Amino acid sequence: MMNGLFQKLRTVLAIRKSPGQIIADGKGTRLQPRFNQPLVGSDSAGIADNKSKSWLLSILLSSLGVTTFIWGVRELKWLQSWELKAYDQMLLSRQEEKPDERIVLVTIDEGDKWPLSDETVNKLLVKLESYQPRVIGLDIYRPEQKNLAAGVKDKKNIIAICLMDSLGKKDILQPPNFDEEYVGFSNVIPDDQDNQILRRALLFATPAKGKCTTKYSFASVLAWNYFKKQNIEFNLKDTNNYKLGKTIFPALSPNSGSYKGIDTGGYQILLNYRNTRNIAQTFTFVEVLNGQVDSKLIKDRLVIIGTTASTIPPGGFYTPYSSASDQPSKMPAVFVHAHIASQIISAVLDGRPIIWYWSDWGEYLWVWGWAMVGSVLALRLRHPLVLVVVSGVTLSGLVGLCFFIFLKGGWVPVVPPALSLVITGLGVMVYTVYRTQQRTKYIFLEVEKQQEAIEQLNLLLKENSGIQDSHHHLSPITNAPTRLTGDLLLGGRYKIDKVLASGGFGCTYLAEDTQRPGNPICVVKQLMPARRDTKFLQVARRLFNTEAEILEVLGKHRQIPELLAYFEDNQEFYLVQEYIEGHTLNEELPPHSEVQKESFVIDMLKQILEVLAFVHEHRVIHRDIKPGNIIRSSVDNRLVLIDFGAVKMMQPPTSKETELVTVAIGTRGYAPPEQFAGHPRLSSDIYALGMIAIQAVTGVMPHQLQPNEETGTIMWRQWAEISEELAAILDKMVLYHFSDRYQSAAAVLQDLKLIQE
Question: In which order are the strands placed within the sheet that holds 197-204?
Fold first, then answer.
């Protein structure tokens, strides 16, 4: 009778979360709606969609919250230094480019009798002019030289420099005998937020009242004069889009790329350095004066003259290459101007990329996208170690993708999306673990109530059994169930369509939910208590409610039907459940079908193991894994594990209490020995699943297989033709002693993945 009572009160097909709540009064318990959310359709697709929507909502909310937090931190410039360092590293990691053959550098160092006399400078310019360069740029301050370029036939091919007030330096006058048209300022704008590293090029600026009155930079004027021969003109009608020929150089804004709130006075662009140790062919000014240079190497080229010694003005600048071991700590100014001029010329003539960047919205969506990736990984990969490994690979992919985009000229954020991915992943994992612990704790409490109710029912049944033995005239305690008809609206909303099954414990019906759009089909299970006296019903009600609440927690998994409602009516208990349209796994296995292929078995194992991993995570044992309790959904072909009426809470491993022997529930052939002895374990479910797989590959029913006389483990390999790897996994799943088997579903999944690699 005890076994029959458990079957009556604990046999459940779990379904969707209840659209009603339990209201208890003196007449019993009735159903009251919890919400009026519509459900479209008449099958399980709507419920499955709601599960997917809930999962998607978790991803969206968690990722959006972290992204907003990261964005706020970014707006405070707390990430700018990291992002600029990442930018520098990508510059350093690019392949080395060839020197720009259109440019020639003539360098002056400390050993060249500095300062050079006016006569020496003019002599150098005359010598260079004889080689017929296209343009000569003089990156040497010569404000006191009133006769600069004396002896040169055409001074229009020579560009001089001046300096505007900058960083505490006084302005320097341009050569007095040069028109402003042939003078460019040499000012640069380092990033003062990051150790004065030069990453930007200043092309135009409004001159302050001073000695340097030109509006254009030295490199810009050099490039324009170089283009004169090719009739390429610049256009600055749009003050934010400087155009040379067909090439546009978009101006930096205060928040361009990963910059935040920078001073973008004048017209600035990102300086796209050529990653090369030698920006161009280089000669010393002594070699030029002594005629040691082949004139063909200078003809029709842009020649820039400048100093390379750090002690000679204008000195050098820190650049992204300053951290490289094979580069000087500071780049001489003449090289910087050569890089800027080369960038302008190469972009126009060669289509070399101009560094671009997204708008704030584009970057926000980019960061949000990676936050969602972190959420998905954390929700799908519950094992912390696996999550760490996969997240590490994903981070590498993010960095690789950013670098690939950078090679195409795009500067997209690296640090913010990396942080959003990690923080979201860790946050969701921690929250998931917390929620799991809370649910498990809740289940533990419900199971404690359940055990108390079972003990009380046991005592009541024993008492009643003694009374019956003494008084033969008493009526039996088990009543036949009252079969419901289609005219009755159970709970005021469920219309019975047909009977699915019936027995001494009650009946199972297909019903329509008349209070939801489309009258969706559901399953109603009627469970009748063994006795009708008040005391017995009170205890039975407690047992029924705690069991249903446990099932409601388990039903969160998409491959476990969820509980829709549970209530009491006329001293009988009812479960309202999702209807899974499809067929049981019995129809796909021998003897109803042919022996299955290895690929089918692996897919079946993986799907059910994922469900068991979730169930076992809550320390719950199903105890009746068999083909008849696995449904193949006709909606999306997924396998759904049903009939959780035999669920039992596994006692915590640290519990010092003596484990109660439970009623033996299971199916012959699928249930392991310890389960029939009343001591089920988590590995008991793994055993049952292994037996299903063996049935699939052998065609032999589990109860027909014989055990090994020495080990007790069933013998099956002689009837199967599968790989040794899969056979070894199945062997370990069905070992006789529970401690020798796989101890977790995750461990089986891990070995299965190795087969497919």
Answer: 189-191, 197-204, 267-270
